UniProtKB/TrEMBL annotation:
<keyword id="KW-0326">Glycosidase</keyword>
<protein>
    <submittedName>
        <fullName>Neopullulanase</fullName>
    </submittedName>
</protein>
<dbReference type="InterPro" id="IPR004185">
    <property type="entry name" value="Glyco_hydro_13_lg-like_dom"/>
</dbReference>
<dbReference type="Pfam" id="PF02903">
    <property type="entry name" value="Alpha-amylase_N"/>
</dbReference>
<dbReference type="InterPro" id="IPR017853">
    <property type="entry name" value="GH"/>
</dbReference>
<feature type="domain" description="Glycosyl hydrolase family 13 catalytic">
    <location>
        <begin position="139"/>
        <end position="497"/>
    </location>
</feature>
<dbReference type="GO" id="GO:0004553">
    <property type="term" value="F:hydrolase activity, hydrolyzing O-glycosyl compounds"/>
</dbReference>
<dbReference type="InterPro" id="IPR045857">
    <property type="entry name" value="O16G_dom_2"/>
</dbReference>
<dbReference type="GO" id="GO:0005975">
    <property type="term" value="P:carbohydrate metabolic process"/>
</dbReference>
<dbReference type="InterPro" id="IPR006047">
    <property type="entry name" value="GH13_cat_dom"/>
</dbReference>
<dbReference type="InterPro" id="IPR013783">
    <property type="entry name" value="Ig-like_fold"/>
</dbReference>
<keyword id="KW-0378">Hydrolase</keyword>
<dbReference type="Pfam" id="PF00128">
    <property type="entry name" value="Alpha-amylase"/>
</dbReference>
């Protein structure tokens, strides 16, 4: 066995409390190098004379890539504490003992050589709202979803859907429009709404906040928003708002004070200003979102800024009973602030959902003291690279997915915010080269993968559009121009997500090896097994005969249609 490839650490995704009784321990080895793995564990104080009383348990292999095999032990620590190690047996029957202090050919008698799980404090472990795992989200860009009150539309608003969408276009979408669209959303089956910013701002996207305590007047007022939240809750729909705490807008009162009073401003420490006087062109002489001068970066390490933003985070929960915060540019804000943010909002509403916008490996924010989840961009990037672009082959795709399934603790993965498109990307059908069939494959994978899936408004009816601003077009309400077949397919997926454990987070996910070009995986739950067969090619593929009932299929017969699918329930 290749010793250099054996890896475990007693922290983060390798050792964590999954529930109030169970600890998960993850081990990596070289692919194909190990025949069996056993866990050796026991109470670190349980000795008879000088002999440690330990137990053993087989460890399951939970995934493999071309280079790595993953093993996961699920164990209840005796007396809430344990020392542990791994016994590895190779295919040639070589035996190694992998402990914290190294690799041994014989089982060590020194308790200090073993990995340590000192004490199982549930308060230290990751905990996220239970309701999230059963939530299907729908993202709304308020300015473009529906115009319910034309009397508050901007003076320069264009008639709905008319003209070319530009970065400065206004069409008059508002909160009343969302209320008017709740019957549609309930019929679709979603039970969570994620709103991009609704606070006062001069832009159509509202990511340049002017007043964090006020709703933009072109969207409505607080009474309207209160009615919206209550109407959602009456229908069993949760509401999540977007918080932009990394930066403010240029018109934000404290920044305007800095522009007016310069170095004498009492707010100068609220921002990261390099020198005075303030310069905005060609690049600002202060930190900003990217180099966008109209979005000055807030100094969240400043106590006044911290107090202001934490009060904002409480206000919208206390006053309107919102259910979640999505945090914009979350990876550029200091960890200390996010830890205080979590303590603040959870004290007001324990099961509020906290989602960070982080596009990369996010373990640093998901240890249980900051976020409940992040937006799962690595998932959609992998799906598009494989099914749409073909820039990675099937094995590379499997490798990426297996890695993603082991990147975080299992219960973190079960709460991730899984998107396929958003206001920051092109629309899904456009990303798939205008192939609705490919889009269906992506949705099928999304809804059968662990996490909490999200649909970008209008994608369910086949709306098209490239990168922003094209992807922020007006919602099409004329049913004759909607792709009702695609909408019906998504409705079916949402129902299956709610009724079949094999589609939910209560089922394990594993790829099935096949000697053809189909992508096959299985979800196993207490109700049995679902087998998913996806054809990511432009040719019909012969279908392997599986016992069971066809739960969902793109076509009948012994083949799976090009860019088709079949789901079998066993």
């Amino acid at each position: 066995m290749e010793k250099a490839m054996i890896f475990h650490r007693a922290i983060n995704e390798y050792a964590y409390g999954y529930d109030d009784e169970t600890v998960h321990l993850v081990l990596q080895t070289k692919h194909g190098d190990v025949k069996t793995v056993e866990l050796i564990y026991g109470d670190p104080y349980d000795f008879e004379q000088k002999t440690w009383n330990y137990m053993t348990s087989p460890v399951e292999r939970t995934g493999e890539t071309t280079t790595i095999d993953y093993y996961k032990a699920k164990v209840t620590p005796p007396n809430n504490r344990m020392r542990y190690g791994f016994k590895l047996t190779g295919h040639d029957d070589e035996v190694l003992y992998y402990l914290e202090r190294g690799i041994f050919s014989e089982l060590s008698k020194e308790i200090g050589d073993y990995f340590c799980f000192p004490y199982f404090h549930q308060s230290d472990e990751y905990r996220a709202p239970a309701w999230v795992k059963d939530t299907v989200w729908y993202q709304i860009f308020p300015e473009r979803f529906r115009n319910g009150d034309p009397s508050i539309s901007p003076d320069n608003a264009t008639a709905w859907e008319e003209g070319v969408v530009t970065p400065r276009s206004f069409y008059g979408g508002d909160l009343q429009g969302v209320i008017d669209g709740l019957d549609y959303l309930e019929d679709l089956g979603v039970n969570g709404l994620y709103f991009t910013p609704i606070f006062q701002s001069p832009s159509n996207h509202k990511y340049d906040t002017v007043d964090y305590y006020e709703i933009d007047p072109h969207f409505g007022d607080k009474e309207t928003f209160k009615r919206l939240v209550e109407a959602c809750h009456d229908r069993g729909i949760r509401v999540m708002l977007d918080a932009v705490f990394n930066h403010s807008g240029y018109e934000f009162a404290p920044f305007q004070d800095v522009l007016k009073n310069g170095a004498q401003s009492k707010y100068k420490e609220w921002f990261h200003i390099h020198n005075f006087p303030i310069v905005t062109e060609p690049k600002p002489n202060y930190e900003a979102f990217g180099f966008v001068s109209r979005m000055p970066k807030l100094n969240t390490q400043n106590k006044e800024v911290e107090a202001y933003l934490l009060d904002v985070s409480k206000y919208w929960i206390e006053t309107f009973d919102i259910d979640g915060w999505r945090l914009d540019v979350a990876n550029e804000v200091d960890h200390r602030f996010w830890r205080k943010f979590r303590e603040t909002v959870k004290a007001v509403k324990e099961d509020v959902y906290i989602v960070g916008e982080v596009w990369h490996d996010s373990m640093n924010w998901l240890r249980g003291d900051e976020f409940d989840a992040v937006m799962n961009y690595p998932l959609v990037d992998s799906l598009l690279s494989y099914i749409e672009a073909g820039t990675i082959d099937q094995q590379a795709f499997k490798d990426r997915i297996v890695h993603l399934l082991h990147m975080y603790p299992q219960h973190v993965t079960e709460h991730l915010f899984n998107i396929l498109a958003s206001h920051d990307t092109a629309r899904l059908v456009t990303q798939t080269g205008d192939s609705v069939d490919k889009a269906k494959l992506l949705y099928l994978f999304q809804f059968s993968y662990p996490g909490s899936p999200c649909i970008y408004y209008g994608d369910e009816i086949g709306m098209v559009g490239g990168e922003e601003p094209e992807s922020r077009g007006c919602m099409i309400w004329d049913s004759s121009r909607q792709d009702l077949a695609l909408r019906g397919f998504i409705q079916t997926l949402i129902k299956l997500r709610k009724t079949e454990k094999g589609f939910s987070n209560e089922a394990s996910f594993n790829f099935v090896e096949r000697n053809d070009r189909s992508l096959t995986y299985e979800k196993v739950s207490t109700e049995g097994k679902l087998i998913f067969v996806i054809n990511p090619t432009s040719e019909a593929l012969q279908m392997v005969s599986y016992a069971g009932d066809v739960l969902l299929s793109s076509n009948e017969g012994e083949t799976v249609a090009p860019y088709g699918y079949r789901v079998i329930k066993q």
